Amino acid sequence: MHRWLLLAYPRDYRRKRGPEILETVHDIAPTSRGARVAANLVRHGLRARLGRPASRSVVVWASVFTVACGLFAASFGTWLTWLGSRPLDHNELAAAVSQLYPDKQVSHIDKDDPPAVFMIYGSPLSWSFASELLFGDGGEYSLAGLGASFEQLPADSRPRVLAELRQRLQAAGWDYTEEIHSNSYDCIPDDPRCDPSSIPSNITLYAQRGDNILEVHINADNTTPKMDFAMTRSTPWSAYPAGVVAFVLGALSGWCLFGWASRRTEGGHPLAQGLARFLYGFAMFLWLAPILLSAPLMLSHHLSEPHLRWHLPWEWLGQPTMSLPFLLGCLMLTLALGLAALPYRQPADQTLAHS
After folding, report:
1. DSSP character for 114?
2. 275 plus 166 within the same structural domain
């Protein structure tokens, strides 16, 4: 097993000191815990991949890059899992609505299945939407859904409609959350005409049965009261292990990639080193700024109202709304890796030592 753990070390380091490390491990094995020895081997091996043994900041920057790579890899892994989830069926929506309200006639109901799991402006993602993704409209890329609506509800009776809705959901086997009240419009707080207590509120309620999630929206317009239904899928169970595995693989790959670039630039020209550091720092800013902006807002949103399905992982990272900074960061990292891949002349003592 210890021989396999040596894979944590760089290849040149294993070739040079591998037998010595294994001999030392075998000598201390009878007096030490196996798990502790294995953990030390992995820890020292990962540190050896970074080079620059006298530097402490290199570990910090490597950790930042590792976590970022793990998060983006986990998002990609869950996205792939979502693509394989069960597609929406308009017949299921029609059956659910008719079961809840067999005594009412719907004014609108979708009769076609969505052409994709994720949609943007009602269409599957394609190259024609590249400008929308890159320039601020990436938030429109979201899960596809099916919709239905009832009109001509009794005016001024939304509490009674809500109570009836709860009873019907429970009778049909749906688990539902507490309702969410939101203002139908906003007004300027300092305006004397603004009376927050007089603003009508919309009501939103979420319900789940199996892998179907039903969002029910009761509007606040008493002139034409309306109830909307939107059906989406719940998170597939496979998304969770896929996200964990993708995070681990992405983090390990990020650490190894950073270590390779770190060792390559360690003996390079000072100008190349400085430029590589600048490119890396700029790339981390472009990657992390959207995360630091989006994650707290998303967490506050989740804590403020009930959710039957957490928002998609990439939305916590500010994607694809801020996909342009992410792509620019990838470009900066590619240039930094290109600098690390450039051949450089070894010092004379190293050249003689390897000859």
Report:
1. -
2. no
